Each structure stands twice: as C-alpha cells, then as structure tokens.
C-alpha cells in the first residue's frame, strides 16, 4: 500500500503543472494488455496514442503496430518516453497538445487512455469529419462520458452525427484504483469503428449536422412537431410510414436508419430554401 501511495505522489508531482489536463495514468499491466488486444492492431496499422504519459501503452503498441505516434504534452513525460522508446524505431514522439497537432493523412487508429478534462474535444477532433483518415479507436475514458456517448435516446446533435458514421460500444469498465493518481470516478473502454455502409454518405455530413442541430433543439418534441417547418403534413405521413416512425414518437428516439430516411426525404422532396441553415454562434461559439 505504501509503495502505491509513493507512486501516486511521484506522478502527481509530475502532472500538477500547467500542461495537466486531467491525466490519470493506467498502471495495471493486465488491463493495458486487454485494451490493446481489443484494438486488434496489426503490423499494417499506424496507431496514434493520445496522452502517452510514461509509455504504459506505447511500448506494447510498438510491438504490435507498424508505426506508433505517441502524443504527449508534458515535458517531463516526453523525456521519459524518449528514453524508453529509444530502441523502438517505429515510435515517433509528438511533444504537443493533441488538440493542436495535425492528424495523420494516412489511415490510422487510436489506442489511448485520454485525459478526462478534454474528452469531448478529443472526440470532436477525431469524429467531426467522417471522411478523414481516422478509422477506429479503443479509448480508456471517464465512465460517465462513455455512457453519454452511447446512450439512447440521442439528445445531443453532435453525438448523433458521430453515431451516424461510427459504431460506438462500451467494452468494459475499469476501477479508479487502477490509475495513478486515482481519479474520483471509474473509467470505461469505448471502442469506435467507422461504419462500412452508413445510412448517409460522408459527403453530406455538414448538411446532416444542420438537420440534427435543428431537429434536436427540443429533444422531447414529437417527430411531427420537431420537423413541421421542414416537411409538409403529407411528407411527414410518408416518412413515418417508410421509416417505421410513430407520429408522436419523440424526435430523440429515432435510430440511425430512421435518421437516414428523414435526411433523404429532405434532400429528395424538400426545396433547399426550407432546409435547416447553419446555426449562428458568437465569436466563441459553444460546443
């Protein structure tokens, strides 16, 4: 017990600086191995690790992947990573804030235990544009965030957009006691896979986002009420029949297939002047 407390104090001293963004380092090697096995990484894969810390994931990933891009913003951790990965020619350390660095142009995967404080910004960067080279991820994150991202009904338009092009699934939970320093909450392993046949093509992702933003302004509204400014009563009748939607069903309860039907009904049968427009925000619009 004393040894574990000493480890916690040492790591806390390293990370309680200006670069710290809620980073808790996973120290259970069996769980690290399990997370990497779930990622199904091969020598053909380029893997980006976000918040590499002291290399708990970096070194095992280097044995399985063709290339590992270890992103770490803490200077002390970067020095530790450089020493540990010196023998590994397939590891590149990126000493930068992940939110400011460029994503790889070639297809890549993500395997990481990410900082809790920037979970949503990380997800937004990876999933905002479904046409990018990002293809899959296995991420250790705060349990509450993982549950929100996979919950039904879907009340958040950003999360709806993510799930139109990616399958999200909580694979397992991890006790807070497996981290140094231990966080106040438990974690979860969230797996993401890009869909091979999404119900809406990637080229329409911005138009779909505008539809989702508009329709989910009031998630509890009945379907016909939420979209009455876009579709005529006759069009709504056809959509409910074709997609198996009840007229008074809450708009947030639609699944990805039903949203696809709604989107194509708009594209095919509604004049562009009636399509939802991009929502106006201030200079520092809220996420």
Automatic annotation (TrEMBL):
Keywords: Methyltransferase, RNA-binding, S-adenosyl-L-methionine, Transferase. Transmembrane segments: none annotated. Coiled coil: none annotated. PROSITE patterns: RRNA_A_DIMETH, SAM_RNA_A_N6_MT. S-adenosyl-L-methionine binds at residues 24, 26, 51, 72, 97, 113. Residues 31-196 form the Ribosomal RNA adenine methylase transferase N-terminal domain. This is rRNA adenine N-6-methyltransferase. Belongs to the class I-like SAM-binding methyltransferase superfamily. rRNA adenine N(6)-methyltransferase family. GO terms for molecular function: RNA binding; rRNA (adenine-N6,N6-)-dimethyltransferase activity. Pfam families: RrnaAD. InterPro entries: KsgA/Erm, rRNA_Ade_diMease-like_C, rRNA_Ade_Mease_Trfase_CS, rRNA_Ade_methylase_Trfase_N, SAM-dependent_MTases_sf. It comes from Bacillus gobiensis. PANTHER family: DIMETHYLADENOSINE TRANSFERASE, DIMETHYLADENOSINE TRANSFERASE-RELATED.
